[in-house]
Amino acid sequence: MRIAFLGPHGTFCEQALRSVIDDLPDAAPEPAASTTAALDALRAGEADLACVPIESSVEGAVPATMDGLVESPPVVVVREILLPVRFGVLVRPGTAIADVRTVASHPHGEAQTRRWLAAHLPGAEVRMTPSTAAAAAAVADGQVDAAVCAPVAARYYGLDVLADGVHDTGDAVTRFVLVARAGSGLPAPTGADRTSIAATTVNEPGALLAILTEFAIRGVDLTRIESRPSKARLGTYWFFLDGAGHVAEAAMGEALAALHRRCTDLRFLGSYPRATVPDGSTAPSPPVAPPVPGQSAADYDDAAAWLRALRAAPDPGVR
Ligand SMILES: O=C(O)C(=O)Cc1ccccc1
């Protein structure tokens, strides 16, 4: 199974993928030059899965991934992976901090170390690269003096760790997703799942509230909401929503069916098990809300059986 990941070797994305590799039979990780390239390889059939970063607890969404998820042909998330991230500053052997004129990183790396960079490398020009390991490779090639990246990248590129633990916020966690082509099967419900969708709607008062209401009245706990430009014209958006539950469950299934009637476009982006941080040190998201009375799976089954019985009652013959 070919798995395109955000490369080159030494990215956090590769670490995230390797943390679950034992669960993936015959996995063959293949580095891609960018998040977009990984999703393109999946869509083109050059990979069976793509592993890409989707959000961080510090910097929020990874826009290229959000945009890539709603392109065609459709793709679905089949697994999420949470990875605690720790940043180092890597340089060519012999480079001192006073020699660093240029420093490179992924935008999320820069965002999570901005204060450290301002304090310790105030004069350095900061450049963006498609990944943190691409920054390390650029240091090895002599294109820049330093990279903000995973300390493990040092051994891939023959670099030294000039400083470690340079992140501004402790306990930062990044969420990665494994993505498959739509139609290749859904993970079975585990009882602790997440469902992701993207929706567009008309621009009128209450349109977004109406979408949210379909989840609220069914007791579905939303865990994330983001918007991204639809790119059709200014002022039109995709709303990305994550909620606790699986499409196979009545509450989530009925909420999605209601959105299908209500939204101008609706993309199902997957139902997959909710992940926890491997070392358990940081809660991945606020605790799931307690079940709302009348909204459990048993309540839905009971209500459906009641309705079936009503409809099956014999015709009284009265016209
Ligand atoms: O560039 C990487 O190594 C990635 O995996 C993306 C990323 C960048 C910064 C923080 C977390 C993930």
From TrEMBL:
Matching InterPro entries:
ACT-like_dom_sf, ACT_dom, Chor_mutase/pphenate_deHydtase, Preph_deHydtase, Preph_deHydtase_CS
> Could you tell me which residue ranges the Prephenate dehydratase domain spans?
2-181
* Residue ranges of the region described as Disordered: 276-297
A Pfam family for this UniProt protein? PDT
Annotated Gene3D superfamilies: 3.30.70.260, Periplasmic binding protein-like II
According to its UniProt record, which reaction does this protein catalyse?
Answer: prephenate + H(+) = 3-phenylpyruvate + CO2 + H2O
Q: Where is the composition biased (Pro residues)?
A: 284-293
ACT domain location? 196-273
Q: In which pathway does it act?
A: Amino-acid biosynthesis; L-phenylalanine biosynthesis; phenylpyruvate from prephenate: step 1/1
Segments spanning the bilayer are none
Annotated keywords = Amino-acid biosynthesis, Aromatic amino acid biosynthesis, Lyase, Phenylalanine biosynthesis
**EC code:** 4.2.1.51
Quote one Gene Ontology molecular function term: prephenate dehydratase activity
This protein is called what?
Prephenate dehydratase
Q: Which organism is it from?
A: Actinomycetospora aurantiaca
Q: Which gene encodes it?
A: pheA
